[in-house]
Write a structure and sequence with these properties.
The protein has 579 residues and is mainly alpha-helical. The chain has two domains: 521 residues, MFS general substrate transporter like domains (Growth Hormone, Chain: A, Up-down Bundle), CATH 1.20.1250; 31 residues, no CATH class. It contains 26 helices and three strands. Strands 1-3-2 form a three-stranded mixed sheet. Helix 3 runs antiparallel to helix 11, helix 5 runs antiparallel to helix 6 and helix 6 runs antiparallel to helix 8. The longest helix is centred in the first third of the chain and has 30 residues.
Length: 579
């Protein structure tokens, strides 16, 4: 809400140096010096660092941790739950429930990913236009809980025997997809929204060293923390896949339900702390009017009210947007073009949630469940993210190479391509191994599943460059009033990846899998090159574009022009606090 930006329960912007020694952090000057804009010479000579992360941002990260604990906890066992038949008793050598086979299992897990990444668009419209991020997250959480309750109840042994597991799973997937979509569209923008500084400034450390504190470095740090929390939550699949093997699927789904209830408690308990922009009821209509006008003028500058006063005074008089909104929208549309490449990346990533699990079922796993191996991905991320955030990125910035978004995204695609190339090699090796060679089916060839480890590690590394940067890019480039909508468009790229995965279902069978992995890897490699060729110049203007923002007086004028009653927003905040 409008007044929440002015709350003092958020950490002030004290500088913190992002380097790789604790001594450097101690050098930060704890002063309230005036923010001085860096000069051209400063940009050439001073190193770039991040600011302090507000405490309220960590509270939002905790919410995402609980949600991801729940999501990965239930989806980890899904492939076995759908593919394999129910065993006679537990503990089971190969747990299962519905027995629909690999193609059906892959199709349904792919549908969940499709559904979970198309629903954020609906949730974003509700959030940015009507309810706001906090209320949308709360509403989505209650829908999520209903889906989880149905999943738990229909996965108990008596329900499986009665045939309730499959219809219960379908209903659960629909409700859980709605719930997670509503949360995903809003929680990452809400994290970044807790940091309010929009322009870089120069700060002097205690030792006299001058540095440039930038929003770019700060957001990079915040989204690294956010993604780290996601993957700590993702380790829940270790517990749930173990429970599925030794106790049964009902216990594997009950644990995430309990954790999600904790998440709802966190959402409600932190309601007074969140910094949140007010929703705008006309934002979609407003953006569409500007885009429609652009098709006529072919120049965004001509769509600004300041220009319309000269060329079309009647339209300028009724325009609800301002000049800054046009610049923000132009910047957001450029970002959305970059998102068009991401379906190929997500197609690489999705292999670790279905086909690689099935691949492990044809390999020697010992006493380890085949679907627990996917947790190598979050384990790798938990280790690598702090190294990148505290050592690699600061070191590169110290040497004048800040690694702007496009180069990071391009590298992410390249590493994902390497992961798929390696996976294709392992699949070929499986087909050359006895006793079943290229038709293992549900049987095991004599090759260790440890060969899969590099596939997961490479995908994890690619996520740091591509996925985390995509979240950061979506937030930074979106207009203030469209953060959730632009974030949902980035998430929508995962939905299109699921459509591509549906098209590949016919080849997710032996002996075609080698060529499937090869084709996906080649596609990612080509995209990596094309992204840099077509969008690489964007890194040169990244800082200037991010500086497009309104000051406080500009925001008041903007809300006045668009009909938002700031006084009412303030009173709503007061009433909420009193309640």
């Amino acid at each position: 809400m409008a007044e929440k930006v002015e709350q003092k329960d958020v950490v002030t912007s004290e500088a913190i140096v992002e380097t790789f020694t604790k001594e450097d952090v101690k050098e930060v000057a704890e002063t309230h010096e005036e923010h001085v804009e860096p000069t051209e010479e400063d940009w050439k000579t001073l190193r770039e660092v991040g600011d302090n992360v507000p405490l309220s941002a960590f509270l939002v990260i905790l919410i995402e941790f609980c949600e991801r604990f729940t999501y990965y906890g239930i989806t980890g066992p899904f492939q076995n739950y759908i593919q394999q038949p129910a065993p006679p008793s537990y503990p089971a050598e190969q747990p299962g429930a519905i027995g629909k086979g690999q193609q059906t299992a892959t199709a349904l897990t792919t549908f969940l990913q499709f559904w979970a990444y198309i629903t954020p668009v609906l949730a974003a419209i509700v959030s940015d236009q009507y309810l706001g991020k906090y209320r949308t997250i709360l509403l989505s959480s209650f829908i999520y809980v209903i889906g989880l309750l149905i999943l738990v109840c229909t996965s108990i042994p008596s329900a499986i025997e009665a045939g309730a597991a499959f219809p219960g799973l379908i209903v659960s997937i629909i409700l859980i997809g709605l719930g997670t979509g509503g949360i995903k569209a809003n929680v990452s923008p809400l994290v970044a929204e807790q940091y309010q500084s929009k322009a870089p400034f120069v700060r002097t450390l205690k030792n006299g060293t001058r540095v440039i504190v930038t929003p770019q470095a700060t957001y990079q740090q915040m989204f690294n923390m956010f993604y780290w929390g996601i993957n700590v939550g993702g380790l829940s699949a270790i517990a749930t896949t173990t429970m599925e093997k030794n106790i049964g699927f009902w216990s594997a789904y009950l644990l995430p339900l309990c954790m999600f209830i904790v998440g709802i408690v966190v959402v409600i308990s932190g309601r007074k702390r969140y910094v949140e922009a007010p929703p705008r009821g006309s934002i979609i209509l407003e953006a569409s009017k500007v885009i429609k006008l652009w098709f006529k003028t072919r120049n965004f500058d001509d769509c600004k009210p300041s220009a319309l006063t000269k060329t079309n005074p009647d339209l300028a008089a009724v325009a609800t947007w301002d000049d800054v909104f046009v610049d923000e929208l132009r910047r957001a549309l450029k970002a959305c073009v970059v998102f068009c490449w991401f379906p190929i990346y997500w197609l690489c990533y999705q292999q670790i949630t279905n086909n690689l699990i099935s691949q492990a079922a044809t390999m020697l796993t010992g006493n380890v469940p085949n679907d627990i191996i996917q947790n190598i991905d979050p384990f790798a991320l938990i280790i690598i993210i702090p190294i990148m955030d505290r050592i690699v990125y600061p070191l590169l910035r110290r040497f004048g190479f800040p690694m702007r978004p496009i180069i990071r995204i391009s590298i992410g695609f390249l590493v994902a391509a390497a992961s798929m190339a390696y996976t294709a090699g392992i699949q070929s090796l499986i087909y050359k191994t006895p006793p079943h060679f290229d038709h293992p089916g549900d049987e095991v060839n004599w090759i260790s599943a440890a060969f899969q480890i590099p596939s997961y590690v490479l995908i994890a590394l690619s996520e740091i460059f591509a996925s985390i940067t995509g979240l950061e890019y979506a937030y930074k480039k979106a207009p203030q009033s469209m953060k959730a909508i632009v974030m949902s468009l980035f998430l929508l790229s995962n939905c299109f990846a699921s459509i591509l995965a549906f098209a590949l279902v016919s080849v997710t069978e032996d002996p075609k899998l080698t060529w499937m992995y090869t084709g996906i890897g080649v596609s990612a490699f080509i995209c990596s090159i094309l992204i840099w060729v077509f969008h690489g110049k964007g890194d040169k203007v990244d800082v200037q574009e991010d500086a497009i923002a309104r000051d406080e007086s500009g925001m008041e004028e903007y809300y006045k022009k668009t009909g938002i009653n700031i006084d009412k927003e303030k009173q709503d905040n007061v009433n909420e606090k009193e309640a």
